[in-house]
Amino acid sequence: MKNKFIALLLTAALGTSSCSKLLDVPSHSAVATNTLSQADVEAFLIGIYSRVQNAPGAQSYIMFDMVGGNLINAGATSDGGLNTFISNILRPEQGLMSSAWNGYYSALYQVNNLLESTESLPESSRKQEILGVIHFFRAYLYYNLVTRWGGVPVLKVNTAAKVPRNTETETWEFIEDELELSMATAPAYMAGSFYYVSNMSATALMARVKLALGKKDEAHDLAETVITSGYFQLDDFENIFRNATNSESIFTFKNATIESNTNISTLFYTYAHPVKGSYVYRPTMEVMNLFSSSDKRAAISVDTYGGLNVINKYPSGQSGTDPIQVIRLGEMYLVSAEAGGLANGLDRLNELREERGLGPVSPATEDEFLDAVLLERRKELLAEGFRYYDLVRLGRATTDIGLDDREVKFPLPMNELALNKLLDQNDDY
Amino acid sequence: MIYKSEFMKKEVCSFLRRCYSLLFSPILKLVCLLLLGLSLQVKVMAGTYLQDQPLSVHVKDADIQSVFKIIRKQSKYLFIFSDENIAKVKNKITLSVSNSSINEIMDACLEGTSLTYKIVDNTIILLPVSEQDVTAQRISIKGTVVDASNGEALPGVTISVKGSKQGTISGADGHFQFDNITPPVTLTFTYIGFSKKEIVVQDAQPVIVKLSRASQNMQQLVVIGYGTQKKQDVTGSIGTFRPDDRNSRPVLGPDQMLQGRVAGVNISGASGMPGGAVRVSVRGIGSLSASNEPLYVIDGVPVLPHNAAMTNFGENMNPLAELNPNDIASIEVLKDAASAAIYGSRATNGVILITTKSGQKGKGQLSINAFASMGNVPNLHKVKMAGSDQYLEVANEAIDNYNNQYGYTPGNSKFIPYIDNPYPTLPETDWLDRVLRTAYSQNINVAASGGNDKSTYYISGGYQNQQGTILTNELKKYMIRANVTGTPLEWLKTGVNLSMSYSDNNRVPGSNLGSTIMGRSLPQRPFDRPYKPDGSYYVGGTSDLVYHNPLQILNEEVAYLENYRLLGNAFASVNFTKDLMFKTSLGADVIYTHDYIYYNQKHPYGTGNGRNVDDRRLLTNLLIENTLSYQKSWGKLRSEWLLGQSFQKMTTSTSGIDGNGFPAPSFDVLASAAVINDASTNLYGNAMESYFARGNFSYDGKYLLSLSMRTDGSSRFSPKNRYGYFPSMSAGWQISKENFWQDAGKELKLRFSYGATGNQEGVSNYAYQSLTTGGYNYDEKSGISVTTTGNEDLTWEKARQMNIGFDYSMFRGGLNITLDYYQKKTTNLLYNMPIHATSGFTSITSNIGSMLNKGLELGINTNVNFGELNWSSDFNISFVKNEILSLIGNTDVLSIGSNRGLQVGQDIGSIWVYKMLGIYQDDKDVPQPLYDIGVRAGDVMYEDLNGDGNIDINDRQVVGSSNPAFYGGWNNTFRYKNFDLSVFLNYSAGADVYATWRINTERLGYNAFNNTLKTVKDRWTGPGTSNTTPRAIYGQGYNFYNSSRWLEDGSFLRVRSLSLGYNLPASILQRLKMKQLRIYAQADNLALWTNYSGLDPEVNSSMDPRYIGEDNLILPQPRTFILGVNVSF
């Protein structure tokens, strides 16, 4: 009986006092955000790299190849359906539209969050460095947004409110401002540290941005700053795209297998390939025919396996993930060349070509030169997310690959429009 | 809460006072001492025969209590006596015996006193002589048992002598006999289908005992929350199903058992795969959040809703399939708020109480149920695909149409050439035939049960081996159970209900996985082949084969799901007085899951060198529950009171490792993996603290009232919104007990109830908090990230439900009608509300609105005899209408998934897509914007709601709903002599099925997939040829937008089961010393009538109420033929 008394007393005690505390069940994998301190800023910074790398999804990194005529659905027996393939992607109801939009904005939320925390830190050189990284990422995210959708809501601080779109000009201005800030304070590049944002990353991205805006002189100077910085040298594709040490990368997402679910490679290989993939997209025949026999990029860029054409730049297939080149020196050579024009740019073009195993070209006119640069960009940067916007920014998308007029901008995703009435759809979608 | 705590304290105090006075009451003084430390060591399973134990006693002038002490030192005997009796033993005892029996010693001690004794198990009770008539003579009792309605002899009736282990069974002529009986005795007669009867026999006169058929209804006990109630006193709306030999189907879990049985309960499966998830909806859709399942309470333990599997292998798995349906005595569905509100915050979607079998007092019983079955996939003719010639005809017509439309001619880079059959001389492949099979299953279940006045036991063991109709799919289940109660002391009852099970499911990919077997078999091109001439596979996704090779998928993977489950509770109840009882109970549901998938190097997902995903989980659900019940009558007013408290904590601990790089397929554990892709563990949980009270009142058996209240505190909400209160009331009027009610053969009861219930499922464990989560690592450095913004205002979802109904019975129970009407309004709907992504998130868990369910339920039960033919039937039909009332002021459609929308005024499950009006017969009819994207005559005409010429999201509309207008079931059992025949039908009308599988099989040359034969024949080939099926066109997705083109009526009538059984006659049974032997043949899913063009309108690719009724080529329920036997001794 006494035993029972003890049991009864225990239950009674449980019932009256201790249960309320037992209702505080904490999470073991997370902490309440309000318990974080300034010491957590470095961990947040690492988290930003992870989020920006993973949030938009694998397709976002090759989207401009998909809608730029470099890729087509792997099941297509010929390239005849290329424009249908592109039009099917550029639909407001396409999941790829919303996953990219949602991904960029969710990453931006983290970046803005860190910006707020960092600004409250006491002044230090490290604080400035972190701010430099933050401004780079904001510019990088908005670059991805503006090149897809044109003007988008520019959020300098996080907000739960519904906001309308800024103009395309405002968006570009914001990107330029952010990169100015980043170039000034981002950590100085140290040899081999291309998995982290540096002042060189910011400079290189700014060169890309200036070229997009037609500010050729600035673009040329910035690209030359990077090329002549002494940190980088053109390197073999075997090194760049086979996860080796290389001297070419300026900023690369490490995209380590255990830290990532962004697998670009499986989109390209077939199930019959040794590393296996789901073979969603294949290079078009035009792409397969781009590379001459002496082109050292050819084998790493494309391959034919079991009679099927595949992109070969991301080698892991199902067995892992591969680093993602964000900015590398090859692009800077081509930015410098394009921005320099026939007079000031041809040398850089031919230097690159020589490095890739090709002889020099000698275009007679600016137009021919631009064609040559574009062709080189297509080969050099295949499956790295450039082609579509190269055509769009030069006004050649409708003529070169026959896009519809509306297709020079992406449609805003259907759900976002439904949830925020302040947003307007791009024309003719 | 302060109020509640005070209240509890008061209760506890009065309780303690009572215990204190009990402790010092003279009767129990000594007993307590003797019992100290022994109270729970009661052996109840088997009688211990202590009588044989030799005892030695050597005393001189001792009092009797010292003798008892000596005996206790040598044995386990307990003594029960009152002080007043002990006082009667005046004389001092002198005794010297060795190796004597307890009877010898007791006889010697009590010689010459006015006391005698009785030995029950190992307890010796001292009694005054008058209570035990030692001079009574022993007699024989003979008698006959007959059916009260017609006087016919009843064989096989179980007859037991109350208070002893004696028992017998009536013979073929209804005759029975007991010898050596000391009158007076009480005989108990029990017989299936008849009311239990007790008679007192004083002398040896032969007796004739008339048993009446059980008027199944009013006297039956119904299980309610935390107790039982006579059916006649029930004022809420409760549906009951009691499985027996004749109405059982071969099912894996108790939820499947309920299908079609109870009005208001709609049950549909995920697929025909063994162990697949089952969707159970009680009274429509109660919540918007993903978890819409009722609360299952198994022997008093609320179990945790979860997916039995961890990795997505194409469909969710059912955790209840781990239990043994043979152990179930009854299933009660608490449908209205009044009956469910005692389960408070988890009761909005109804509560299903499952009670397992227990032993009965009287003669023991051993029963064996065994069956073997074979099943296959029915109705395959409905999905007949095109042959090679037809396939090529369509594919090349589509190419022609494309080339012509854009003016591409040979030589143009965009010109598309014809395709042809690469293997013109080889036979076509019947892909489905290559992966489907006849599935064989075996099941055996053995149960032993029995008991006496002090204890009961039910022990069972079962084994089930169920093959799936897809190659390699097989579920094996091993189950044991022990339900034991013991009454060691008059005032104390203890017991355990314990089940353990192990299930091992060799899985195949379900419909929501890229390697789905059905979806990857049916649309293959007819001329393609699984094996190359050299025996290796043709690999899917290459030019050789369109889709994954399903044989490669099946042969080169091992995927098993193992679940070990321990579910049970232990309880002790203390009767302070006849009317006041305290019960404490500890419950646990512990599940260990091992979800294992191994793709070897030949598998398409095998990364080239093998991949293994190994997930493990420990789910722990612990419950402490204390209740105090009290009953009291004042004249004609009877009252029953219940007070209770419970604390429940659920913890989930998981581990998952994903690796690849195996030296060879025989290495299949991660110890030999070269690369670990992902490895993590996690730990999370929630807790709930609850207090509840109920009062049931009945005046003169006519006027009934029940009041209940529960408060739950949940860790899922912020401290300021942590507690929810859920009151209810219900009332009943037994009109037929009024004096003015003339007809004795008819009974009528009116019921009314109103109450509140809640829901917290669908809210993640930490949803109210803004959380920063780890694991966002980069370059081997640990990173953190804000993952949720949190919502401090998050609060309980609450449903208020009104129920009005009546129970009417006529022909003395031959016809029973139950009718209920209800209205359930759910407010503060919990939902992961989609929000604009520029906020940084795509959804936030919020209380977003309210909705209403209205419904009518009718159950008709008949039991009629036509001479020797007995017909009993149960028919039920339910009508329910769901409507969203508000979505935080939003009247726009909230788009969800690819084909659904939520909108005020519509129901959940509304299909929100374009409406197909027909086929454009002429290019001139096509609006310019559509013409510009390639739409031509022969393409689908969608309704252009806003008239802008374009077809976009603004043109979507609600075209249908996956909720049925009505549904139900009808079971008929015919009994004639020793034969029984059961026919069970279930049906549903008015629900639409969204046939997404047709999007892959009616592409008509868009890409390489094959087409159904019907589509090929119906396709548009010129003006006037079709207004339902479009033309063949290469590469243009316009014709298969999500639209009403894929919407079909999913109404059906199914012969759920048909069984014919034969009971061996009693004369043979007696010779075999058996109580019962029934052999039966059964067919499950024998016939299906439906207009749905797919295989089965009742399967769902998602269990979420928002997306139900979608068929993406799911494995249908098999048609099964069974041979079985039920034996009992």
Description:
The complex is a heterodimer of chains A (429) and B (1129). Chain A contains 17 helices and seven strands. Chain A has helices spanning 2-22, 41-54, 58-66, 82-89, 95-119, 125-149, 168-185, 199-212, 216-227, 237-240, 285-288, 298-301, 329-355, 366-380, 387-393, 397-401, 414-419; strands at residues 30-32, 71-73, 249-253, 281-283, 302-305, 308-311, 324-328. In chain A, the strands form three sheets. In chain A, strands 2-4 form a two-stranded antiparallel sheet. A two-stranded antiparallel ribbon of chain A has the order 3-7. In chain A, strand 5 (302-305) and strand 6 (308-311) form a beta hairpin. Chain A is globular and about 75 Å long. Chain A starts with a helix and ends in a 10-residue tail after the last helix. Chain B is 11% helix and 44% strand. Chain B contains 15 helices and 55 strands. In chain B, a hairpin with a 3-residue loop joins strand 43 (894-896) and strand 44. Strand 1 of chain A pairs antiparallel with strand 35 (771-774) of chain B, so a sheet runs across the interface.
Q: Looking at the structure, what is the overall shape of chain A? A: globular
The percent of residues in helical segments of chain A reads 40-55%
Physical arrangement of strands within the biggest beta sheet of chain A: 2-4
The biggest beta sheet of chain B reads: 22 strands, antiparallel, barrel
Helix/strand/pairing category of chain B: mainly beta
Residue windows where pLDDT falls under 50 for at least 5 positions of chain A:
1-6, 13-19
Short note summarizing the structure:
The complex is a heterodimer of chains A (429) and B (1129). By secondary structure, chain A is mainly alpha-helical.
Topology overview:
The complex is a heterodimer of chains A (429) and B (1129).
Chain A: H1 2-22, E1 30-32, H2 41-54, H3 58-66, E2 71-73, H4 82-89, H5 95-119, H6 125-149, H7 168-185, H8 199-212, H9 216-227, H10 237-240, E3 249-253, E4 281-283, H11 285-288, H12 298-301, E5 302-305, E6 308-311, E7 324-328, H13 329-355, H14 366-380, H15 387-393, H16 397-401, H17 414-419
Chain B: H1 2-23, H2 26-35, E1 55-62, H3 64-74, E2 78-80, H4 83-86, E3 93-100, H5 102-110, E4 115-120, E5 123-128, E6 139-147, E7 158-161, E8 167-169, E9 175-181, E10 185-190, E11 197-201, E12 207-211, E13 221-224, E14 227-230, E15 238-241, H6 254-257, E16 265-269, E17 278-282, E18 295-298, E19 301-302, E20 328-334, H7 337-340, E21 351-356, E22 362-376, H8 388-406, H9 431-435, E23 439-451, E24 455-467, E25 474-489, E26 492-506, H10 517-521, H11 550-555, E27 557-575, E28 580-599, E29 611-634, E30 637-660, E31 675-699, E32 703-714, E33 723-734, E34 747-759, E35 771-774, E36 784-788, E37 797-810, E38 815-827, E39 830-834, E40 843-847, E41 849-866, E42 869-887, E43 894-896, E44 900-902, E45 910-913, E46 916-919, H12 928-932, E47 940-942, E48 957-961, E49 966-976, E50 979-989, E51 992-994, H13 997-1001, H14 1013-1018, E52 1047-1049, E53 1052-1063, H15 1066-1072, E54 1076-1090, E55 1119-1128
Parallel strand pairs in B: 2-5, 6-12, 18-21
Antiparallel strand pairs in B: 1-3, 4-5, 6-9, 7-8, 7-10, 10-11, 13-14, 15-20, 16-17, 18-19, 20-21, 22-23, 22-55, 23-24, 24-25, 25-26, 26-27, 27-28, 28-29, 29-30, 30-31, 31-32, 32-33, 33-34, 34-37, 35-36, 37-38, 38-41, 39-40, 41-42, 42-49, 43-44, 45-48, 46-47, 49-50, 50-53, 51-52, 53-54, 54-55
